[in-house]
Amino acid sequence: MSILHIVNHPLIQHKLTIMRNKDTGSKDFRELLNEISMLMGYEVTKNLATVDVSVMTPICETKKPFLATDKIAVVPILRAGLGMTDGLLKLIPFAKVGHIGLYRDETTHEPVEYYCKLPTGIEDFVVIVVDPMLATGGSSSSALTFLKLRGVKDVRLMCLVAAPEGISYVQKYHPDVDIYVAAVDEKLNQDKYIVPGLGDAGDRIFGTK
Questions:
Q1: pTM of this prediction?
Q2: Percent of the chain residues topping a pLDDT of 90
Q3: Which of 55, 81, 115, 141 would disulfide-bridge 101, Cβ 3.0–4.6 Å?
Q4: pLDDT at 196 (0 to 100)
Q5: Whether 84 contacts 76, CB under 8 Å
Q6: What would the pLDDT profile of 69-127 be if each residue is shown by its tens digit?
Q7: Are 81 and 98 in contact (CB under 8 A)?
Q8: What is the pLDDT of residue 102?
Q9: Phi-psi region for residue 81, left (φ > 0), alpha (ψ -120 to 50) or beta?
Q10: 3-state DSSP of 92-124
Q11: Rg of the chain's alpha carbons, rounded to an integer?
Q12: What is the mean pLDDT of the chain?
């Protein structure tokens, strides 16, 4: 069964509270999202496999842990997921980056795909899907489905704020995918926005509203 990981470190919660404030501008919002993404990255990657390798220190030769693979990819769900990408790349600078473009139909609230570009050989990568908001779960679930259809076996979902409805939806259709969030909020409103949430993450990142 999918495991929900709530990354409730005090620094993350502090930064998230500033992001929730409607008076926080796009510049600060982007910087805080970047910082939180890097901090959450430690939790998302803590179970990456390692192997012991020989290394010569200034004192002697020794065997110490080293990542077993460099095939790690960050896949943001466009457009808001872009705001989480740089934070993870600071932590994993060698990671490849793919993109999945989805938008939510304003009438049906269902996700619609318009773009998908992934690293070659993605089926052999550890893939971290990022999107700030896990609301209905439709977009995230669709992105995970697209990746699995392309052979991806090790995939994790990392979001900033989630609604219980979105968590349940993803767990129903992807029980093998662990979910990492900084906060689980109260509910969705009638417009399918997270309450209390932080508004439209994409608009706040890019200053488009």
A1: 0.93
A2: 89
A3: 115
A4: 97
A5: yes
A6: 999 999 999 989 999 999 999 999 999 999 999 876 778 767 778 899 999 999 999 99
A7: no
A8: 80
A9: alpha
A10: CCCCEECEEEEEECCCCCCEEEEEEECCCCHHH
A11: 18
A12: 94
As a whole number of angstroms, the distance between CA 129 and CA 6 comes to: 16
Structure tokens at 134: 């896990």
Residues facing residue 62 across a β-bridge: 55
Say if CB 114 and CB 144 are below 8 A apart: no
d(CA 62, CA 13): 39
What phi and psi values does residue 22 have, to the nearest 5 degrees?
-65, -20
Residues of the chain with pLDDT under 50: none
CB 170 within 8 A of CB 134: yes
Residues with active-site annotation: 104, 108, 200, 203
What whole-number distance in Å separates Cα of residue 85 and Cα of residue 74?
7
For the chain, the three-class secondary structure string (H helix, E strand, C coil) is CCCEEECCCHHHHHHHHHHHCCCCCHHHHHHHHHHHHHHHHHHHCCCCCEEEEEEECCCCEEEEEEECCCCEEEEEEECCCHHHHHHHHHHCCCCEECEEEEEECCCCCCEEEEEEECCCCHHHCEEEEECCEECCCHHHHHHHHHHHHCCCCEEEEECCEECHHHHHHHHHHCCCCEEEECEECCEECCCCCEECCCCCHHHHHHCCC
